[in-house]
Amino acid sequence: MRPKYDIRNNLKLCRLKAGDLTQEQLAEKVGTTRQTILSIEKGRYSPSVGLALRLAQVLGVTVEEMFELEE
Amino acid sequence: MLNKLLSRLEWHPTHATLAAGALVILGFALSEINWWFLTLAALGTFGPGILRETGILNDQDEFQRRADRQAGYHAFLTAGLFTFLYDAYLRAGDRNVGDAEISVSLILAVLWFTWFLSSLLSYWGPQKTVSRVLNAFGWVWLVFNIVGNLTDPIALIMQSLLAAPFFLLAYVAKRWPRIAGAVLIASSCFFFYFFGLYEIFGSNPLEKGRGMVIVLFVGPLLVSGIILLKSRLEEDES
Question: Which pTM was predicted?
């Protein structure tokens, strides 16, 4: 069943607020590829809970600040 | 230099993926000498996946894993459905489809190209994928044309012009995807008629490589058109 919500993300905004990190730098810090960061920012990919928590930790924000449910 | 090129392409393959790609190319190239070299291509195509699924190779991040599995599922659905329909067609009457290897190669082509297109879509999104596929078509046409018409400059120039619509559509696909999508669907219908591919419904369906022309040329154009019609505009960002 397709979920009745979309996930909107503010990852790009959080990334820029956290010292103007590039996608490459953020990817390196969380241990993933730039492709993954790009895909999350474009809304083509929703990360796992683990990666979302890791992103939040590295960027110094909460997961809820990065990802919001859009009914 | 290779890293720079791959970064420009927004593609970050693992070392195993690059080695597998090299094996596939080598396998197809050496199959001209001996068909047993096709096993190298099989090793390149399925080897990394088998190693990853058995836990021996752990080189992908979660996005790459998801893209791989999604592409595999799409390939299973498309090639599986195609094979069932083809089997029903073959069993329903006395068919003249030539040697068995032609049919097997066709099924493998459906499997492999579905997997490939689905992977590209995961990595690049609809517009960029279609635009790059069209550019690739244009370049392949140009290179074959240059190699084939080196001694005939007029034919070289005239036939090279036929690559222009591909480059133009690649540009349009990025800016006006719906228009490009409609043109691509219309083009695939035109080529289906122009190359006489409707004869696939006749008594010698796979004669003159019709099946492969559909899978490698008309099919991708049609699928690209449908993808673009369904796509939303995407911003380019880095």
Answer: 0.84
